[in-house]
Amino acid sequence: MDLVDINVIPGMETLNKWGVKIDCARRTVHLTASDGQGVEISATSPSGYLHQMEVKPTDRIRVVREFPYVFPDELPGMPPDRDVEFLIELLPGTAPIAKRQYRVAPKEQELIKENIDELLGKGFIRPSASPWAFPVLFVDKKDGSRRMCVDYRALNDVTIKNKYPLPRIDDLFDQLQGACVFSKIDLRSGYHQMRIRPSDILKTAFITRFGLYEYTVMSFGLTNAPAYFMNLMNKVFMEYLDKFVVVFIDDILIYSKTEEEHEEHLRLLYAKLSKCEFWLDQVPFLGHIVSKGGIMVDPSKISSVMDWKVPEVVKEVRGFLGLAGYYRRFIESFSKIAKPMTSLLEKGVPFIWTKERQAAFDELKKRLTTAPVLTLPDLTKSFTVYCDACKEGLRCVLMQEGNVIAYASRQLRKHEVNYPTHDLELAAVVHALKIWRHYLFGNRCEIYTDHKSLKYMFTQNELNMRQRRWLELIKDYDQEIHYHAGKANVEIRKQIKVGKAPHFSEDEQGTIWYKSQICVPDVDSIKKLILSEAHDTAYSIHPGSTKMYHDLKERFWWYRMKRAVSKYVAVCDTCQRVKAEHQRPAGLLQPLKIPEWKWEEISMDFIVGLPRTQKGYNSIWVVVDRLTKVAHFIPVNTTYSGARLAKLYISRILHDSLDSKLRFSTTYHPQTDGQTERTN
Length: 680
Description:
GO terms for molecular function: endonuclease activity; nucleic acid binding; peptidase activity; RNA-directed DNA polymerase activity. This protein has 680 residues and is of the alpha+beta class.
């Protein structure tokens, strides 16, 4: 029976038989055999970055054993004809290019010879008489070995670029939400599994000391190789994509919620044997560590950032920011931190490495090593977005159920520096909606900002063209804007510093005092907690508003605190139910007498808050006869006085009911109204 997969915990008898001695201080275990010889086993400290529950050898996985022909140690030969062939299409008028070979060391010549013999044996290359020729060079692999490559840069410059899209890495990670079991598969010699169109083979010729050869299969270094290979992979895995498989060129990740489901998923796939890692609770994928808890930065991938020397030219600054920017979703306020360095990329700015730029350089390195674990988004749940803006840039945080999904930030553009604060805060909201549109569009999202006026954005009457444009964009989302006091007491602190707030002071802990009282920040949740403690607890026993206010003002102060206390006590359900009334009881309601004649009694009301018409009306005055229920609807404005409404009643209701009209006599002609004149 094969017991290699079974873990054994030795008991006391076994430990005693083998004379086991455990040294916890040295972290060693000493075993003594029957012949008296001893064996000492030592343990090393585990890595703090990555924990793998189990990595099973592929030859011991049942699913793999069912498909041995799919997992060969080496590719048997030329790949079969496929729907996708690799093409090298050149710019019009391009002539053949022939480069001289590079000088290499004797050991590298041996490696070239070994690689040529191996590739010739598999049929991947063949001797050539092509007018094209490109030199050979070596690149280091992750395992320390060296890979032979061809320098195709001159060929790439004259090649028409294939625009087949590569997937966004962020979108690939979003598919992994809820997955607990992973398998990572790397295709064996993936590029060599695609044939080159026969007419393009001669363009891949490379020159060596041993002769001129040309590739019959796709080679590393060709500009369109990733696009063509991505096209092939999408066609192969089309029915599984976004269900339990994500693919990025030759990296394949299978994800499942349970091990049983994972086994069924693996049965559907074909991949390379020696580079497969199965049944992991965490797996490195595209420079990240993926687990059921979320994604984090792969420490092995940021070593190049940590080892980056201080830049001496602008090109090195651009390279560092590009490499660090790959992980910018993990770094809060990335743009703000990097601003001293990005200013060097502007035209006409001299390269001067200041202390401020060195501090930004060191801070970015530090943030990468302490980057948090980000949660994978669940598109069935609502999102929360926090936005902020200042003169240095815009900052946003995307969250779900209190867990951070991503950070986003950017610096202000030149024209945005002159925006008022209101527009900058609104720009931060728009930036968040645009950059996370693939998450937020069609889902409920709560947006929090520390600029209170944005809450009433949708009810403002006067907006400039920029605000109207942004407002139309915001209306496309199922959102609600809330206020949170992220900058509570900032204005008071400013007044204290310039000496314009004599009754306020700030202690060493940052607490602001108003005389001998604590100045409570303008945060509704904090105020509500204080009011609840002062009124609802067993020690406070529901005092009245006057006593409660006097108790609170001994320790706390905030603007209009007395009004807040009175309002809180007035709506207390317990007080309304239990406390006795000390006022005179209200009398009984008496019904109104039914009128005997029409328009003897009327009732009226106003409908307000309507959009303003071209004539300036924004309300409707409703007048109803209590007997006949005949109603009149008169357009009015909320600024109308009682006298003006009375005139409207006479002209629009009384005159209309009597069908009477007001007629004026001719000026200076009393004969027009002779009857009245005689009566006078």
